[in-house]
Amino acid sequence: xxSADDRDxxxxxxxxxxxxxxxxxxxxxxxxxLDPSDLVQQTLLRAHQKWGQCRATxxxxxAAWLRAILATELGEAxxxxxxxxERRRRSLEGALEExxxxxxxxxxxxxxxxxxLAERQERLLALAEALAELPEDQRTALEMRHLQELxxxxxxxxxxxxxxAVAGLLRRGLAALREALGERF
Length: 185
What we know:
Elements lengths: L3 H9 L2 H11 L10 H14 L9 H23 L4 H21 L7 H20 L2 H12 L4 H8 L3 H22 L1
Helix pairs in contact: 2-3, 2-4, 2-5, 2-6, 3-4, 4-5, 6-9, 7-8, 7-9, 8-9
C-alpha cells in the first residue's frame, strides 16, 4: 500500500497535464466564471479521497482515471451555469479523451510495448509541464492552434491579435517547447 507521500507525489505529477486539459475544455463563455486551477485542485482532492478505489497499475491508466474525475468535476461546475446535465458530462469525458489523444499524437511513439507506452506517458506529462512554464500568450496560442486545431485566423480573433502576432507567439512558443523538452529527453 502506498504511503500518503507516495500518493501525493503520484497525483502531483499529473497537475500540469490536468490543468492543460481543463483549460482546453472550458468553453469561452465560461472562462470568466470557471477557474481551471480550481477544477484541477478539486479533481486532485477527489482523487486523493478515492485513492483506494483506483485500480490503475500504470501512469497511462492513472491518467485515464484522473481524466474521468476531471470530467465529473467539469460537468458539475458547468452544470451550475448550464443545465444540460448528464449528456454534457459525457460529452466532456469524450472531449477530454480527444484532447488527451491530440496531446499523445503530438508525441506519437512508434512502440506499443510497455516501455514505449511508459515513455510516451512520461513525454506527455513533460509536454504539459513545459506548456505550463510558457508565457500565457504563447501557451494559449499553442493550445488553440495545435490542441484545439483552430486556424491561425481564429486564434488571432479569439486573442484579439493580428495573425502575424499570433504567428510570432506560435514560433516563439514552439522554440521554447523544443528547448524545454530537449533538456528533458
